[in-house]
Design a protein that fits this description.
Blueprint lengths: L1 E5 L9 E4 L9 E11 L1 H8 L12 E2 L3 E9 L11 E5 L11 E5 L3 E3 L6 H5 L2 H14 L7 E4 L5 H12 L3 E6 L4 H7 L3 E4 L5 H4 L3 E6 L3 H10 E9 L6 H6 L4 H21 L2 E4 L6 H12 L7 E6 L3 H9 L6 E5 L2
Parallel strand pairs: 9-10, 9-12, 10-11, 12-13, 13-14, 15-16
Antiparallel strand pairs: 1-2, 1-4, 3-5, 3-7, 3-16, 5-6, 6-8
Length: 333
């Protein structure tokens, strides 16, 4: 099968198009013919070598985390899915490889594709929607009447997180350029801050939750817009000791996480605020809940560009610019 392979870590490197063997199928695996693959900043970060400690992959490696496609074959213990089913997933860490014609996905990570979406639209959903779900529903337990601040509302994660927060009944604030204000308002943002003209710290007060995806300076400011008892969930770091335990990191790495997050944890405690780092995980049952919300019209995909499979490197480079509105997708077949 054709795939795009990472041979070595390199900043702004390129993946090598190659003919590789079809993936082997475990007892609990589902072999999926890839129709479309979502492209995420995580793909570029792994390519650049930024996650070598957290995700020590063996090279060569097929990149790609999001998939939408059709079931080809199932392992002997698979019960939910059968050949011909339309499915989508965020492939598990250490089992990624959606920039290919076929991928084996764990049954527990797979969900039926929303009926209302095309394959390209479905491929844009899993990683960002699961991140939003695990931050807003699982960690922060956002409920009706609360105030939520979601950074970078026009991005892949922000565009989905705004819609989920509105569905949960929250008042939503976000940052966006003036050119993207109409987009984030159409997704449900109640307060839109033009980050080029205003500092969100001067506008927001007494928020219940912040979904942080930016740098350390924005993290410090975000803590100050929360009320006592509020929560900050960060997807951009610093990683905390709880994350080290969750991934069963070796002792030295847990110590590194403890040191990296010490300042943020200390500031949060002083303000009476909860701080947590989130590195999302694949979860088919949560994705099935998201499918229901999509088919009910509560969440819609936001896609910037669809690239041809041969242009996978160009798709990653475009995501790497940070200018995409919503998601970028590669059409495989």
């Amino acid at each position: 099968m054709k795939a795009f392979v990472l041979d070595r870590y390199a900043k702004k490197g390129v993946l090598r198009p190659a003919e590789v063997p079809a993936p082997s199928l475990g007892d609990d695996d589902v072999l999926v013919a890839v129709h479309a693959a979502g492209v995420n900043p995580l793909d570029a970060k792994i390519r650049d070598g930024e996650f070598k400690l957290i995700l020590p992959y063996k090279l060569p490696l097929i990149l790609g985390h999001d998939v939408a496609g059709v079931v080809v074959r199932v392992g002997p213990r698979v019960r939910q899915f059968k050949p011909g089913d339309d499915v989508y997933a965020r492939a598990d860490d250490f089992h990624i490889g959606t920039f290919a014609e076929l991928i084996a996905v764990k049954e527990s990570s797979l969900a039926f594709k929303p009926r209302s979406l095309t394959m390209e639209e479905a491929a844009s959903i899993p990683l960002v929607a699961l991140t939003a779900w695990q931050a807003l529903v699982e960690k922060a337990q956002v409920r009706k009447g609360q105030k939520v601040f979601i950074q970078a509302g026009s991005g892949g994660l922000g565009s989905i997180a705004i819609q989920l927060a509105k569905h949960l009944g929250a008042t939503v604030a976000t940052t966006a350029s003036a050119g993207n204000a109409a987009l984030v308002q159409s997704l449900g943002a109640d307060v839109v801050i033009d980050y080029r003209q205003q500092d969100f710290e001067d506008v927001l007060r007494d928020y219940d939750m912040v979904l942080h995806s930016q740098d350390g300076k924005a993290l410090a400011k975000s803590l100050r817009v929360l009320q006592r008892g509020g929560q900050l969930v960060s997807v951009s770091g610093p990683p905390d000791p709880a994350f080290g335990e969750a991934i069963r990191a070796p002792g030295f790495l847990r110590m590194v996480f403890r040191l990296l997050s010490a300042g943020a944890q200390r500031r949060a405690r002083a303000l009476g605020i909860g701080y947590g780092f989130l590195f999302m995980r694949a979860q088919g049952s949560q994705l099935q809940e998201i499918t229901r919300l999509i088919d009910a019209g509560a969440i819609r995909p936001v896609i910037d560009k669809v690239f041809a499979f041969d242009a996978t490197n160009e798709a990653i480079a475009y995501v790497d610019t940070g200018r995409a509105k919503g998601k970028v997708v590669v059409k495989v077949r």
